[in-house]
Amino acid sequence: MNYNKERKLIYWGTAGCGSRTNIGVFDHLGDRYTCMEKGTFKFGTSTHQQGIPPGCEGYEIICMIRNPYTRAMSAYLDLLQDGVPSTFKEYCFGDRYLHWPNDVDLHYWHQWKELGTPNWFIRLEHMIEDWESIPNLMDNIEGWEDFKVSNIIQNNHSFENKFDEYDENGHQKVTKYMDQEVADLIYEKDKIIFEIGNYNKDSWK
Questions:
Q1: Rounded distance, CA 119 to CA 99, Å?
Q2: Global pTM value
Q3: Most buried among 4, 60, 144, 164, by the most CB within 10 A?
């Protein structure tokens, strides 16, 4: 679990939601730690794991989220690059939603029943706006304007996968892989994230 002692904030860096870029935002607060099974580390490492580190009870929680359509597509393209011979539709209906509770990274919101719902959500599509809505963070972060330009506005992790395609807003293209049946499945399974992030049900089109 990633956390900041001085500002009493926990950062849940959800897999597939820009967590590598956004741990950098958290780092700019200083005093950032990551608690893992093998120990606690200051800077230098991070984790997707959700939880409340010992001594951090009562800290506010920041959680990364992403449009479920593009998050599913991103995961599929990683498999495709690894040589998994399936279509996106086969992946969604035959694999993606079959592994809870064994894949907590994929279905992270199920853990909130035990851990509690985060206080703040950072949407991949609106990272700057959402970070800037957190007073405890924006009042204390250094170098924010420079970081925005070099790390958020300019995506340093784009095109890591040879199958990546992006629209004019820098978001994963999904339309050519999708149909209404797949969209309905993703919406049904991930509805809580659609609602939290105010993502449009037809945003895949």
A1: 27
A2: 0.89
A3: 4
User: Are 197 and 65 contacting, i.e. CB atoms less than 8 angstroms apart?
Assistant: yes
Q: What is the pLDDT of residues 86-137, one digit of tens each?
A: 899 999 998 888 876 677 888 899 999 999 999 999 999 998 899 989 887 7
State both tokens at 110: 């199920």
Q: Report the distance separating Cα 75 and Cα 17, nearest Å.
A: 11
Tokens read off for 146: 């420079």
Residues 6 or more apart whose Cβ sits within 8 Å of residue 156: 21
What the block records as the tokens of 30 is 């200083």
d(CA 88, CA 152): 28
